[in-house]
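Why does residue order matter? Because the sequence determines the fold. Keep that principle in mind as you read this record.
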Amino acid sequence: MEVKTCTVCLKELSMENFSVRKKPYKQISSYCKVCDGKKRKVYSENNKEKIATRMANWNLKRKFNITLEEYEAIFNSQNQACAICGEHNTTLKRRLHVDHCHLTNKVRGILCYKCNTGLGQFKDSPEILEKAIKYLRCYWLEDLEEVFEENRKIEISAYYMDKASLNICYD
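Structure:
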């Protein structure tokens, strides 16, 4: 049985207690698996931000073929807010998500969780979204008229109070 001495704990251990590094070529670690685990734990506790940045970059590259810098550029071009609802990053509980075309994988923008999943629920279909908008406008206008009739003080734009705009409900 072949043995090796760990350079950290100085224990003489069998070879199965040492990791084999794959790069640059198969090389047996100079310290045992136990010491390696302790060393990794200390490193990860002392470098949380660095590791998080590296993982974010890796995930963006793997999923969307963009770098963290490209994500940040899109994010900043949108004033650090959702491209659809305009909700600012600081008011959200979750980070903003990368919106992309599921056919081409091309990045379209950065969205909040609700808007991103909303698009997904509508199958990323402009036609379905247009139908949903038409549906909402029809009932939204009726609801506004009801509130207005109850003499509540609400400012409603001329566009929405125009009776002709109600025709969208009955096309």
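The first helix runs from residue 33 to 46.
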